[in-house]
Automatic annotation (TrEMBL):
Organism: Arthrobacter jiangjiafuii
The protein's name: Transport permease protein
Subcellular location(s) of the protein: Cell membrane; Membrane
One of the record's GO cellular component terms: ATP-binding cassette (ABC) transporter complex
Keyword terms: Antibiotic resistance, Cell membrane, Membrane, Transmembrane, Transmembrane helix, Transport
Principal place of residence: membrane
GO function term, MF aspect, one: ABC-type transporter activity
Record-stated family: Belongs to the ABC-2 integral membrane protein family.
Length: 292
C-alpha cells in the first residue's frame, strides 16, 4: 500500500507543478464564470426582473449567481479528473513506462497510483472552487448556506469527482500522445458547459436537444447541486410561489425530465456510483494493456 501512496503522491506533485495543466483543467469553469460576469449574467437578471417585478434586483442576482456557481463547481468536478491524467499521458509519451516495467513496482500498484491521483486531484480542486464560490456568494450577494446544505453539496460533488475521474481515466487510457491529449482536453473544456446545461439554461433549448442533455450524466450530476444551492435564492425571488418555482426549476435545469420520467437524486447517485465502478475497472484493464 505504501508503494501506491508514493506513486499517487508523485503523480500529484507532477500535476500541481504544471501550472498550465492546472489552468486548463479549470477551463470550463473559468469560461462559465467569464461568460456570466461579462455578458450573460446581466441579460438573465433583466429577463427575470421583467417576469418577477416584485422581486428586488439583489434577490434576482442572488438566484442567477447561485445557479451559475452551482454549474461552476459541478463542471470542476467533471474536468479536473481529466486534467490529472496528463501525468499518465506524459509518462506514456516519454517512455517512463519502460522504467516502471524494469522496477520492482507491481503493475496493479502503478495502475492504482494513476487512478487514485485523478480522484484526489478532482476532490482537491473541487473543494477549493467550492470554498471560493461560497465566499463569493456570501460577500457579493449576501447568500449563505446552512452546514447541512454545504455537506449535501460536497457529498454529491465527491461522488461526481470519483465517477468522472474514472470516466476520464478510461478515455485517456486510449490517448498516446500529448498532442492528442491537449486536443481532447480542449474539446471537453469547450463543450462541457453545454452538455451540463450551464452556459444556456436547458429549458431555453429545443425540446429534443433538452431531452438529450437531460439524459446525459454531465447534466444529471449537476441537478442535486443546483437544487441545494439555489433553494433559498429561488424562493426569495419568487416569493414562495410554487408554480413559478416549478417552472424555473425546469427552465434552469434544477430539475430534469426525459420524456415523462423525472430524474431523481436517487438515480443520480446510482448512475454516478455505477460509473465509478464500471469505468474504474475498464480503465484499469486498458492501462494494464498499455504498460504490459
Amino acid at each position: 500500500m505504501s508503494v501506491v501512496v508514493n506513486l499517487m503522491s508523485r503523480n500529484l506533485r507532477l500535476f500541481f507543478r504544471d501550472r498550465l495543466g492546472v489552468f486548463f483543467s479549470l477551463l470550463s469553469a473559468l469560461i462559465l464564470f467569464l461568460l456570466y460576469t461579462l455578458f450573460l449574467g446581466n441579460g438573465q437578471v433583466e429577463s427575470l426582473q421583467e417576469n418577477f417585478p416584485a422581486a428586488s434586483e439583489e434577490d434576482v442576482k442572488g438566484f442567477v449567481d447561485t445557479w451559475m456557481f452551482a454549474g461552476i463547481v459541478g463542471i470542476t468536478a467533471i474536468t479536473t479528473g481529466l486534467g490529472a491524467m496528463s501525468v499518465f499521458v506524459e509518462d506514456s509519451a516519454s517512455g517512463r513506462f519502460r522504467d516502471f516495467l524494469v522496477s520492482p513496482i507491481r503493475r496493479e500498484a502503478l495502475i492504482l497510483g494513476y487512478l487514485l491521483s485523478a480522484g484526489v486531484v478532482a476532490l482537491i480542486m473541487t473543494t477549493v472552487v467550492l470554498i471560493i464560490s461560497l465566499a463569493y456568494l456570501y460577500l457579493v450577494d449576501g447568500v449563505s448556506f446552512e452546514a447541512g446544505q454545504i455537506a449535501t453539496v460536497y457529498g454529491y460533488l465527491a461522488v461526481s469527482c470519483l465517477a468522472f475521474a474514472a470516466l476520464s481515466a478510461f478515455a485517456v487510457s486510449f490517448v498516446r500522445t500529448t498532442g492528442a491529449y491537449s486536443a481532447l482536453s480542449t474539446i471537453v473544456g469547450t463543450i462541457l458547459g453545454f452538455l451540463a446545461g450551464s452556459y444556456i439554461p436547458v429549458g431555453a433549448l429545443p425540446d429534443g436537444v433538452a431531452t438529450v442533455i437531460n439524459a446525459l450524466p454531465f447534466m444529471q450530476a449537476s441537478i442535486p447541486i443546483r437544487q441545494e444551492m439555489t433553494e433559498q435564492s429561488l424562493e426569495s425571488m419568487t416569493g414562495g410561489n410554487q408554480e413559478a418555482i416549478t417552472d424555473l426549476e425546469g427552465l434552469f435545469g434544477i430539475t430534469a425530465t426525459v420524456g415523462d420520467w423525472a430524474v431523481s437524486n436517487t438515480y443520480v447517485l446510482f448512475i454516478l456510483a455505477a460509473m465509478t465502478v464500471l469505468f474504474t475497472l475498464l480503465a484499469a484493464v486498458q492501462i494494464r494493456r498499455r504498460i504490459a
